[in-house]
């Protein structure tokens, strides 16, 4: 199994979660003073939980996970699972982009949240790779984060999708049938949506209560 994540995103998310946990503990147990359960304290707690939900969905959840059966793209709120036979193309420019056959057979495209960069940053990264290639003589094409990730995924695609075998009509027909019938699916992540919706709803209620009291 291959798992591709953003190290910087995970570090930032864990930093926030640690900060939020310490502050919530202080509010509840009064580590630095008396515990308080006022409306203001509850509002601060809801904000900390909402921030933790954002840290989870943006920093911890996003990943590209690939095994022998399928490729999965976990974005902040949605999951895309594509059997290798349904993959049509994988590219890595300023983001890892996967084109695949969707549930109704139409070709869909999904961009991975992991390793997204602006076109300007991508151009700078490619220029650095070319300079290193001239200096070292090594082929560094695709060594930008998105490009390198796409290269690894394309290698897995070549290994795992059904192949036509010359001289074996039955096997060739079977491979073509598998390719035509394979479909990728896009689903909402219930835990991710809940991690944002629940604290946001609590925060809205607290604000309304504060406004009417």
TrEMBL record:
Keywords: Membrane, Transmembrane, Transmembrane helix. This is PH (Pleckstrin Homology) domain-containing protein. It comes from the Bacteria. Residues 61-131 form the Low molecular weight protein antigen 6 PH domain. The keyword Cytoplasm does not apply. It comes from Actinomadura hallensis. InterPro entries: CFP-6_PH. Residues 123-141, 167-180 have a biased composition (Basic and acidic residues). Residues 119-141, 156-180 are annotated as: Disordered. The chain crosses the membrane at residues 12-31, 37-58, 185-212.
């Amino acid at each position: 199994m291959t798992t591709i994540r953003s190290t910087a995103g995970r570090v930032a998310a864990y930093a926030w979660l640690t900060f939020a946990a310490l502050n919530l503990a202080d509010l509840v147990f009064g580590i630095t003073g008396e515990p308080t359960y006022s409306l203001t304290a509850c509002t601060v707690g809801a904000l900390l939980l909402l921030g933790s939900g954002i840290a989870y969905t943006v920093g911890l959840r996003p990943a590209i996970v690939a095994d022998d059966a399928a490729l999965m793209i976990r974005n902040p709120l949605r999951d895309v699972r594509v059997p290798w036979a349904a993959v049509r193309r994988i590219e890595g420019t300023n983001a890892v982009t996967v084109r695949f056959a969707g549930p109704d057979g139409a070709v869909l495209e999904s961009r991975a949240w992991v390793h997204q960069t602006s076109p300007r940053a991508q151009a700078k990264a490619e220029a650095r790779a070319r300079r290193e290639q001239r200096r070292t003589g090594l082929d560094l094409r695709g060594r930008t984060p998105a490009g390198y990730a796409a290269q690894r995924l394309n290698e897995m695609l070549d290994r795992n999708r059904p192949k036509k075998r010359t001289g074996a009509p039955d096997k060739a027909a079977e491979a073509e049938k598998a390719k035509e019938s394979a479909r990728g699916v896009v689903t909402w992540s219930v835990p991710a949506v809940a991690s944002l919706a629940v604290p946001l709803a609590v925060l809205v209620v607290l604000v309304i209560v504060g406004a009417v009291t």
